[in-house]
Amino acid sequence: MVTSIADPPIRRLDETDVAACVALAEKHGWPPEPGKWSLLMRVGEVYGIGDDELIGTVALVRYGDGFAVVSMMVVSPEHTRRGHGRRLMAHVLRAARRCTLALYATAAGRPLYLDLGFRTIGWSSSYLGVLDQGSGQTRVAAATDLAAIAAADRAAFGGDRLPLLRRWASEGRWLRVAERADRIAGFAGAWRSREAQTLIGPVVADDLATATSLITDLAADAGGQVRLDVDRAVPGLEAWALAQGMIPSGPAFPLMTVDGEPLPGDRGRVFAPIGSALG
């Protein structure tokens, strides 16, 4: 793509830009999530167009050398149809050209992603509810569990999330493990993505029963309303969420990769992502 002299440059954003990112996202009706933007800037790369006025953003989070997730691709309504979204996506495609690249697409962004060669490989649905009855079958993770958690995660997720998990643990977010025969059979985390709502994820487990035990115990830890992003390809979890009285929240989002490339890892053990922004 040839950049016009009039095109404002793309720059790397930092935490001084969080308020501008939140304001831009709110123009599209997205909820204010300063914590999510701040986390993305610490564990990934957030790019933007504009200095005095932020008119577009995109985030790239790398998980090792072979896998990355794109998110938060948003352009101000006053500046749409000028090629800014395409420029931002071209920027991250160049930056992650050797990676399997995945994203969850909004309805507004999907035509652009299709034009850039992304194809749908799955779907994710969000559920909200209060789960106040823990299973009592899992325990709070200790610092000494982190290496085993990271190893289990690499095998299932197919990328290296250790830097994110290490930061997760150090910042006091909820993290639990399930054990079986002296080994970790699953782990899950939870974090406050917005005020008065806790997002449960990631959830990685050997089976559905282990996954749901982790989910209910984390929900009891957090208290109040929780959100669970469900991968529809994983058998049983969507039906379980409905049986617990959780309600669907918003439309389902397609999971897309370039050329429909399969995701790495043993995805049958990944019951929920950290969230659509982080994979």
TrEMBL record:
Identify a single GO molecular function assigned to this protein.
acyltransferase activity, transferring groups other than amino-acyl groups
Which SUPFAM superfamilies did the record assign?
Acyl-CoA N-acyltransferases (Nat)
A Pfam family per the record: Acetyltransf_18
N-acetyltransferase domain location, by residue?
8-147
Highest taxon of source? Bacteria
Q: Which UniProt keywords apply?
A: Transferase
Keyword Ubl conjugation applies: no
Q: What is this protein called?
A: Acetyltransferase (GNAT) family protein
Q: Which organism is it from?
A: Labedaea rhizosphaerae
